[in-house]
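Our preliminary data section would be incomplete without showing what the modeling component actually yields. Below, a chain of 394 amino acids is followed by its predicted structure, encoded as C-alpha cells that our downstream tools consume directly.
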Amino acid sequence: MPPKRVGLSRARKNAGLTQEELAYRLGIDRSTVGRWEIGATEPSVWLRPKLAKLLGVTRTELTSLLEHEHLASPESDAVFDFQPDERLHLRMALADVSRYLDSSIVGSFNQQLDASMADDGTNGPTRTLPAVLGVVGLVEQYSREVRPDVRRELLRVGARGAEFAGFLYRDIYRPDLALYWRDRATEWALEAGDWAMQGYILLKKSQSAWDDRDALRMLTLAQAAQNGPWSLPPLVRAEASQQEARGLAMTSEPGDAVSRKLDEAHELFASVSEEDRQPEKLGSHYSANLLTMQSAICYCEAGQPARAAELYASCLEREHFSYRDRGYFLSLQAGALALAGDPDDATVTATKALTVARKTNSKRTTQELMRVRTLLTPWQSRPAVRDFAGFLTA
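Predicted structure:
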C-alpha cells in the first residue's frame, strides 16, 4: 500500500483549497488530486509549476512533498531520525493512538524539532520545512485521539513547531504563510496553557513587521509581548526590549528613550542565569552576538549607520553565526555601509551576502539586498555597483 502524502494534503489545506477547487484551477478531475494525495499517482511534470504556485510552495518544496513520506501511518517509513526502538514504539503508538501515544513519543517529536532547528542555519528553510511540517502534521492529526493530558503536551510541541514553521516561511519571504503558522501556534499554545509562548509569538510577529518596515505595528507588538499576562523568560524579555528600542527609533521617539530601552535589553541579558540558557528554555538561542547585531540594526534606524556598520564588522569577523544567518547580517551591514556613504565596501559586502542567500534560499536576505540596491542608487554609475545590481537581478 503506497504511503499517503500527508504533507501534500496539508499544503493544499493551508492554501485554503478543497480537492475540488484545486482540481478546477488545474483543469483536471478531483479524483486525480485524490490519487496524488493517497500516493497512487504523481502530478505530470508540466502541471507541477502551476501546482506549486497554487499551493504557495517552491518547486523544490513540492518535490519534497511528493517524494518524502511524512510519517503518518504505521505502514510508512519515517523521514525522521528515530532510533530502532523509538521507531517500533512510534509504530505501535500510531496503530493504537489512545493506548500507546504517550509522553515519550511527544519527547521524540520535540527532539526532531531540535534537530531541525540545529540544522536550519546550514540547510536553509527549503530543506528544513518538510521535517518541521511533518512533526506539526503529526500533532494536528493525532492530538484528536489521545488523553487530555497527552493532548496538552502534543499541542505544546505543536505550538513550538508551528512558530518555527512561521520563521522558516518568513525566511523564504512568504509572510502570509508565516502569519498562518504563528496564528496556529498561538491557538495551540492557548489550549496547552503555554502562556510564555504567546508572548514569544508576538515578539516574532514584531520582527516580521520590521521586514516590511511597518514601524508602528512592530513597536506595539514588541510592547504587547512584554506587557501581556504572562511571565517571559529573561532572554525573551531582553530581545523584546531591544525590539521596542528599534520601534521607538523608527517612530522618531527621542534618542534618550531609545537608549534607555536598549540599555534595558543589555541589562536583562547580563542578568540571565545559566539555568535560563538551557536548550529546553524558550529563547535559549539568544546570544550576546545576536543582541549586538540587533543593537546595530537599532543604531542604523536611529540615524547612526556608521556606528552600526562598525558593530556588524566587529561581530561578523568572529564567525559566530550559522551560514544562513551570516548572509542575512552581511546584507544588513551592506545597508549600513551604504547609508554611511561607503558604496565600495557596501557593494563588496552585499555581493558576499547574495552568494549565501542563493545557496540557502533565504529570500529574506535577498529582500534586504534589494533595499541595498536602492540605497546605492546615488553611485549607480560605478562599475562595482552596476555589477552588483546585475548579479542581483540575474
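Residues 38 and 324 are 35 Å apart (CA to CA). Confidence is low (pLDDT under 50) at residues 68-79. Preliminary results of this kind motivate Aim 1 of the renewal.
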